[in-house]
Write a structure and sequence with these properties.
Length: 158
């Protein structure tokens, strides 16, 4: 072996010794991060469903128009007791967001019905977001306790 080769071999040995511990610590250190990441990933791989239900009085028809950035789900006029729903898989990269415009008589509301958000994940019990239109506002069902909670008020005008 000439000098260059000896030096080079020594250099490689030192590299192997110093780099190996770094790799070990970097893969064991963010354990919690990996856990969160996996949870998030499994939520996103699920199929979710958003439901909109008309629970208003006096046979009022509810106009529902829901959209995402990529999809327009169309206008649906729901009679009392009727539900409109759709299912989807959230995007793995980037945000998933659906919002709806709802109206009856001379009142309306526009709001997000699904987004990549722990609050929504919990209320929807990791699968079904149930929005209920009533005379006094729009409610989101807390699936695990089966309680409807008011989330939005109706606004005057169309
Ligand atoms: C829904 O109702 C609105 C307002 O009453 C009406 O203009 C629209 O044509 C209806 N759309 C459908 C799809 O029935």
């Amino acid at each position: 072996m000439n000098n260059f080769c000896k030096n080079f071999a020594f250099f490689i040995l030192i590299q192997a010794i110093t780099i190996t511990p770094l790799i070990v610590s970097s893969s064991s250190d963010p354990d919690q991060g990996h856990h969160v990441d996996n949870t998030r990933r499994s939520l996103l791989f699920k199929t979710w469903r958003v439901h909109v239900v008309n629970y208003m009085s006096n046979r009022k028809t509810l106009l529902v128009h829901c959209k995402s950035k990529d999809d327009d789900l169309g206008i649906h006029n729901l009679s009392v007791g009727v539900e409109f729903s759709w299912k989807f898989r959230p995007r793995i990269f980037g945000e998933t967001l659906f919002w709806c415009y709802m109206a009856y008589d001379n009142l309306h509301a526009t709001f997000e019905v699904f987004r990549d958000d722990p609050y929504i994940f919990a209320k929807c019990d990791y699968g079904d977001c149930v929005w209920i239109a009533r005379d006094n506002g729009i409610f989101l069902k807390d699936i695990s306790s089966n309680q409807d909670e008011i989330r939005y008020d109706w606004v005057q005008g169309q």
